[in-house]
Each structure stands twice: as C-alpha cells, then as structure tokens.
Description:
Residues 11-125 form the Tetrahydrofolate dehydrogenase/cyclohydrolase catalytic domain. Catalyzes the oxidation of 5,10-methylenetetrahydrofolate to 5,10-methenyltetrahydrofolate and then the hydrolysis of 5,10-methenyltetrahydrofolate to 10-formyltetrahydrofolate. Residues 144-306 form the Tetrahydrofolate dehydrogenase/cyclohydrolase NAD(P)-binding domain. It comes from Tunturiibacter gelidiferens. NADP(+) binds at residues 170-172, 236. By secondary structure, the protein is of the alpha/beta class. The protein folds into two domains: 34-120, Leucine Dehydrogenase, chain A, domain 1 (Rossmann fold, 3-Layer(aba) Sandwich); 144-291, Rossmann fold. Helices cover 41% and strands 13% of the residues. The protein has twelve helices and eleven strands. It has helices at residues 13-33, 49-65, 80-92, 111-117, 129-136, 145-156, 176-185, 200-204, 242-248, 253-262, 272-275, 292-307, and strands at residues 9-10, 39-43, 68-72, 98-101, 165-169, 189-193, 209-212, 230-233, 237-239, 265-267, 280-281. The strands form three sheets. The chain has a six-stranded parallel sheet with strand order 1-11-8-7-5-6. Strands 3-2-4 form a three-stranded parallel sheet, with helices on both faces. Helix 2 links the parallel strand 2 and strand 3 (68-72). Helix 6 (145-156) crosses helix 12. The termini are far apart. NADPH dihydro-nicotinamide-adenine-dinucleotide phosphate (NDP) binds at residues 146, 169-172, 174-176, 193-197, 200, 213-216, 234-237, 288-289, 292.
Amino acid sequence: MDEMKRTPTILDGIAIASQIKAEVATEVQALVTRGITPGLAVILVGESPASQIYVRTKVKTCGELGIFSEMITPPESITTDEMLVLVSALNAREDIDGILIQLPLPKHVDTKRLLEAVAPDKDVDGFHPVNVGRLQSGQPGLAPCTPAGIIEILRRSGLPVAGQNAVVVGRSDIVGKPTAVMLLNASATVTVCHSRTVDLGSFTREADLLVAAIGRAGFVTADMVKPGATLIDVGINRVTDAADVEKFFPGDPNRAAAFAKRGSVVVGDIHPAAFAVSGAYTPVPGGVGALTIAMLMQNTVTAAKLRRGISPGNK
Length: 315
Ligand code: NDP
C-alpha cells in the first residue's frame, strides 16, 4: 500500500477564470473590429439582495470585457405573460446575443415556460431543451456555465479525462446531468449517483475523478475518496453553527475568525479533510464557483459568433 504523504494540487478557479476572461476580452476586441459588439440582457425580477449581487457582478464583468449589457428589472408582481412579452422582444433584438433570466423567479411565474421561450441561440445559460439536446448529441451549442467551467478547470490544469473513471454525485438539470454528459463526451467512463444510490461510497471510492454537486456541507468524507483522485467540489453551503465550523475546520484560526466576523462560513459538498487524500481538488470558495461568470461571458461571445455563422473556435 502507498503510505507516502502526497501534496494535493489546488485547482485555482480564480486564476483560471482570469485567464478565460482575458481570452474573452481579446475575442470581443476582434469582433468589435468587425463591427460586432456582443450583447447580454439580464432580467432580474424583484428585489432579492442575493440575486442583485449576482446580476451586478455579471453586468460589471460584461463592462470589463467590452460586452454590451442591459439589465431589465421588472417588479416582483410581473406575470408570466408579461415576462413572455419581454423575452420575445429580446429574442427579436439584433444587438442582444445572450438572454439570462436570473433564477429563482417568484413562485407565481412559470419558470419552465419562460426558459423555453428564450431563443435557443441566445440561451447563454444553456438550459433550453434544444441546447440540452445539442450537448447530448455533441453538436455546437451553448452549454450550461457551471459544468462548462468544470471541464475548463480539468482541461487547463492538464488533468486527464479520457479513459478516467468519473463519478458524478448529483443529477440536477443545471449541474449533475450536463456535467456527466460533458465528461462522457470527453471520453470518461461516467457513473451518475443520486439520493437513491445504494452504498454511495462503493462508487465514489472507484472514482479517479469525483464531482460532488449535492448541496450538503461536507457530505463526501475522506473514507469515500480514492487516494490520489481528482475532486471537483461544486457545493456552496453556508454553515452557520459554530460546532459545525469546528467539525469541518478543526483548529483553523482563519475560518474561526471568518465565522466570528460574518456568522457563517462556506463549505463545499466534500469534507475538507478529504482533500488531503486527493491528487488535486477545487477549493470552496475559489474553485468551480469562480468559473461560472467567466463561462457566461464566453457563452455570450460564442452566441454572438454562432448567430453570425462565425465558428466559435475562430478567435
Ligand atoms: P439540486 O438540489 O438540484 O441537486 C442535488 C442532487 O444531489 C440531486 O440529484 C440529489 O439526488 C443529490 N443528492 C441529495 N442528497 C443526496 C445523498 N444523500 N446522496 C447522494 N445524492 C444526493 O442541487 P444543484 O445541482 O443545483 O446544486 C448542487 C450544489 O452545487 C449546491 O450546493 C449548489 O449551491 C451548488 N451550485 C454551485 C454552483 C457554482 O457556480 N459553483 C452553481 C450551481 C449549484 P436526487 O436527484 O435523487 O434528489
């Protein structure tokens, strides 16, 4: 048995996101010289402070990269029909390449109907069934941002995917399923686990590449991980109990100070102690989450190109 102490590689999502954003800015400049300015419309319904922060960051990043952006802020009381009119106007606009509806929407609004109303070629979130189908069949299209970010982390870190035993825990339409499809398209051998999986550990322990998208703090523990595996932690869980903070980060003065200051710390779906047995891992925060906006920017530029018959690879 290999008892040698290994030092896992930290997969720095912030650095990779900066790299992608710099490349996107260059792509935008090249388009602008051809008279094309990519444009993103963001619809933010109501006054949720968390959603407002996300949307502001998206709009600010557009500005930094030279992408035109427009924020549309209907009141909480807007109806599904009124939203459909908004979306249809954006679908018809030549200067808008991407349409993003910030989720969650108020309960009285039919989210599914709205997401399906976005023109597939402007669906920068990659949630439209047409884009889900394109991803599945390996055609060019717009892939969901978080899974696309995972693939970029692996690719840019030079980590192998083809032939690897990949296990994805979580089967949501937004993260788990599209991640599994993208890993399969990259020739991994993929297993998808979920809440009905019997003996989860027996699957995760076989994983060379383990993706956790569960939504439960520190759920994947060290004994569930194959030594040397690559761990991709998608989870963003806010821990507000001091005892839990000590359980996840025993004797860590930085986390204790952060908790004392903010009353919470963020923990992924993988127990921090499991990272020590890995070969490489994405930290939380600063891992997968850092990529999401960069991939949205990339999708907006890809949409601008695809709509005009320019190959997305042609930078
Ligand atoms: P969902 O709640 O939609 O899906 C969670 C999945 O985990 C489900 O498929 C569920 O199974 C599975 N699951 C739940 N409990 C267990 C269990 N005990 N054993 C095995 N599987 C289980 O979450 P999302 O996919 O939207 O998000 C997952 C996490 O990723 C969250 O922490 C979220 O905050 C984070 N996230 C991070 C993003 C980022 O940018 N980094 C973006 C999006 C999400 P079942 O289907 O059977 O119910």
